[in-house]
Amino acid sequence: MRTVKWNPFLSGAMMLLGGMLLWAGAARADISSTNPAAIVVFPKLVVNTANGVDTIIQLTNTAPNPVNVRCFYVDANGHCSNNSAAICDPGEPPTPPCESGAYCQPGWVETDFALTLTTNQPIVWTVSAGLPALPLTAEQRPGIGGVFDGGSIPQSSEDPMIGELKCVEVGADEFPVDSNDLKGEATIEIVSSTPTVDIEGYNAIGIQAIPGAVTPQDNTLILGQEYNACPASLILDHFFDDAPVLDSTVRTALTLVPCSEDFNTQLPITTVVQFLVYNEYEQRFSTSRSMTCFAELFLSDIDTRLGDLNDNDAVSIFNIGTEGTLTGQTVIRGVANPTNPAGNGLLGVVHEFHQLGGPGGPIYSAAYMLDMRGTRTQNDVIQLPPASPAQ
Predict the structure, then answer these.
(1) Which structural domain, as residue segments, surrounds residue 46?
(2) Can you tell me the distance from the alpha carbon of 110 to that of 185, in angstroms, rounded to the nearest whole number?
(3) Predicted confidence band at 166 (pLDDT cuts at 50, 70, 90)?
């Protein structure tokens, strides 16, 4: 296992999850959250054990033979400029634990690990605790005598933590292969007094390898050439923020992660994200903002001052105060940058929560996936670090 650090821009406001679907675009991308794939992406992981929050990951080998996997945790926490051990939220105004005059510095920490899954094996772990080494017999892992350490899964690098997870199917030499055998699910569990337990779940996004196209013994994964391309745009069907639904009000948060990532040199990739918003009268509004490596925002914070819930959320194009209709649709697109050879594709998950009875009332939440339309013309690239396969 290795850990590497660097500090790009992080946009985040840790929120709860949910779901409502209205209309899906006609053409779909070549990736999905239902089919086995060579790359699986979990866009959002949350850990805060002090508040009863944890994420349960299930990763399954659907093949009738053992498979090897390399996975990459991304810890997207921010830290105070005056205290690197103090965790903070760069998406909020400066508040404790940062001292007066300090600011919240965005951060990004990558931790990778490898494991072997036996025939048709599912494996389950909590992000906060990880999982100890998994012993495999010679029969379970052909070609290796005796007992083989199937790999251990590290616990989250911090608690609390927010981030993502990417896993890639590899061969015995730990180079990527063109097999599509992995499926995944994430469950975010919130244990509190109001309500006692709240469960949110979503399927991991699967990116399939193109048979015969993956370059042997190469750690550069090209999406759009060796693997299916990322979607040209993401479609979000949603309630506008602060919409009244029965006896609750609704707010929606959006988590976005890049298709392209460099886990070897950790060079940051910044993408300008364009948002086209349509209300029920088919009136169109638009805005944009940049993101690097990981972003989570309330919809109403995308085009207003972060964290300013009382003063200006109502003027956001994602708010019912501006749109005047309960629901709408947002088309999300990463703007291609010709100077960035790695690509600017995006993936994500949606988080919706309903608060009963106004401020202080119980919050009920759920997660749902973004619809995906078309394919990007510019390739995306995932760069893996050199592997150290078990001998």
Answers:
(1) 2-383
(2) 21
(3) very high
